[in-house]
């Protein structure tokens, strides 16, 4: 049996994605909380396994995999059902494009280390920081709203990698009080995901302190 140990932080968007994917696959895994607030990701022990010092990190039979999309891709290769990334060329490209709108264009500009740099090093006040956060979420969500298809999920009739990325970003948008009225399809898809047990069990409130 494959040993899966997920090193993550309960409120990390990238970690949240991987928890959803693991749950969708129905996989058992051990979870190790890495406090980003306490700086545990910069400890010598952690950096020995993950030189980037980020979460999540999935350790598979002692071998670490970093970066959330790489982890989800590995999960799809190692445990093919249910598929999270389509096999066919065009559906695969669509799914990865949707996922990367969040993972490459929204999230990196709003993660903790960037926000700390804006306030600590550049001296931005909270109001300006909040404008920064909202700007990139709104721009990304405008694109995703236009890219959303007719299905129950971003991934179509079944949740996929794009939904694994969307739901944590919707959580962040609400956390930072970004208005979502302009994105009815995203709100609808997020609500559908919230009815799915795999998403509920991955929610930060469900894992905090667990």
List the helices and strands and how they pair.
Layout: E1 4-8, H1 13-24, E2 30-33, H2 44-49, E3 57-60, E4 63-66, H3 68-78, H4 89-110, H5 112-121, H6 126-147, H7 161-175, H8 184-194, H9 197-202, H10 204-207
Parallel strand pairs: 1-2
Antiparallel strand pairs: 1-3, 3-4
Helix pairs in contact: 1-3, 1-7, 4-6, 4-7, 7-8
State the major sheet: 4 strands, mixed
SS element count, helices: 10
Oligomer: single chain
Mean pLDDT: 96
Query: How are the strands of the largest sheet arranged?
Result: 2-1-3-4
- The parts where pLDDT drops under 50 for at least 5 residues are none
**Total number of beta strands:** 4
Please report which band the strand proportion falls in: under 5%, 5-15%, 15-25%, 25-35%, 35-45% or over 45%. Answer: 5-15%
Radius of gyration: 17 Å
